[in-house]
Amino acid sequence: MAAYDELMAHERATQALEQVAGRLNWDQETMMPRGAAAQRAEEAGALKAVIHARRTDPRLGDWLAQARAPDAAGQAQLRLIRRAYARHTRVPAGLAETLARTTSRAQGAWAEARAADDFAAFAPVLAEVLALKRQEAAALAEGRDDGDLYDALLDDFEPGARTADLVPMFEALRPALVDLRERALAAPPPAPVTGHFDEARQIALARRLARAFGYDETRGRLDTAVHPFSAGSGDDVRITTRTDPGDPFNCLYSTIHETGHACYEQGIDRAYALTPVGQGVSMGVHESQSRLYENQLGRSRAFCHWLHGEMRDTFGDLGVEGAEGFYRAVNRVHRGFIRTEADEVQYNLHVLLRFDLERAMIAGDLAAGDLEAAWNDRFAADFGYEVPNPAQGCLQDVHWSVGLFGYFPTYTLGNVYAGCLHAALRADLPRLDDDLANGDPRAATAWLRAALQRHGGLRTPRETIEAACGAPPSEAPLVTYLEEKFGALCAD
């Protein structure tokens, strides 16, 4: 037990430093003065070097060889620490530090290029990030049976996932999504919500929605950012949103989405705090929570009917015919360029575009400087219309600027998981719509907390979904849900 105790003490201190690093990133996105970017890059690099040294400390190998787990949770801790140690020791310290500095600088360059609508200004630093990520992937792939560069990066976000398994699942989704999209776009469009929506009132309502879905503000905070995100775990989990005076849904549904992420982290058994088990098990499982909160619950007919009354009381006339008109406006299938603003039917088509492009970049088949043209060609082929500018095209997402190659497929995998969880949840909660019609999703969120969230990383991602749903993950429940919901909206 002495080796296990020493190992866990070392791990808790390392986890605490990683939380500090995450707080630096949160600050950079929300409050950091613009002129501090260069210094922040140095700070991030220095902290990354310290964390990498702790992650590759030779004592970890000795402790892991000697440690004996006291229980099932301890076995999971050892499994996750052993996996992390193997991965970190394959990446040279200099590469890890350079990556941290470069991605911190690239994040600022991306924000400026996006604001200026200038991909050419961002392309050189993206090329730097891509070259470094290919080096990292090569180092990580040395420990894999297949030696696949992309799968080595994907494994950081969805442990155990392989492209060979994801491609058939995603390709099974594609024809159903395309067919449903064509039917939805051919139907008469619902009237949109219109008006001027005071941004302070949007934030006030967003806070109420976050609390309704279970977000504990005593252990978090809501701020604004260019790209909404959630950060942290345990007792400090922060979320961000953004406002648009002409589009309140951007704020409200971004908030519900990030609340799903935050509630997962806040819902994990607090006995696991600052340990590997005390975090969401994967980004796919994380995304299942945010998408289920946002879509299957937040965009359901019952909840929309309640939200219509709240919106009308807050903002006045909305330009739609009653609660049902509001529900249709919330779920309108429409042409658009921005992934985070896409409707449920088309969202995964946006993700599949990115999945294919980033695989090509990591494989060396697509250079960073050619990304804009490749993006525009692929978008026109997939969606049937032209991208008007880089800000609505390849510059819209922050992910590649901060080195998150391999992250995008977890969005669609999260939707697949959400479809499975929603089917199981509905089977157990036959009166859920009655609660949602009163603006009360607590039964659903309590179910998710008990079935999935509290366990953190005790199981692998696939085992986590199977344990909660009673069946292996499949795209079929998601297709059924989308067809039932949007097929009815198209037919009416």
Distance between the termini: 65 Å
Uncertain spans: none
Order of helices and strands: HHHHHHHHHEEEHHHHHHHHHHH
Classified by CATH, the class of the largest domain is Mainly Alpha
How many domains comprise the coordinates?
2
Structural class: mainly alpha
Relevant terms:
492 residues, Neurolysin, domain 3, 2 domains, three-stranded mixed sheet, 20 helices, mainly alpha
Model description:
The structure is a single chain. By secondary structure, this protein is an all-alpha fold. It folds into 2 domains: 2-157, no CATH class; 163-491, Neurolysin, domain 3 (Orthogonal Bundle), CATH 1.10.1370. The protein has 20 helices and 3 strands. The protein has helices at 2-30, 37-55, 58-66, 72-90, 93-116, 119-141, 149-157, 163-186, 199-212, 248-267, 283-297, 301-315, 322-330, 344-363, 371-383, 409-428, 432-436, 442-451, 461-469, 476-491, and strands spanning 222-224, 230-233, 236-241. The protein has a 3-stranded mixed β-sheet. Strand 2 and strand 3 (236-241) form a beta hairpin.
In short:
This protein is mostly helical and 492 residues long. 65% of the residues lie in helices and 3% in strands. Strands 1-3-2 form a three-stranded mixed beta sheet.
Task: Give the helices and strands, then pairings.
Layout (H helix, E strand, L loop, with lengths): L1 H29 L6 H19 L2 H9 L5 H19 L2 H24 L2 H23 L7 H9 L5 H24 L12 H14 L9 E3 L5 E4 L2 E6 L6 H20 L15 H15 L3 H15 L6 H9 L13 H20 L7 H13 L25 H20 L3 H5 L5 H10 L9 H9 L6 H16 L1
Parallel strand pairs: 1-3
Antiparallel strand pairs: 2-3
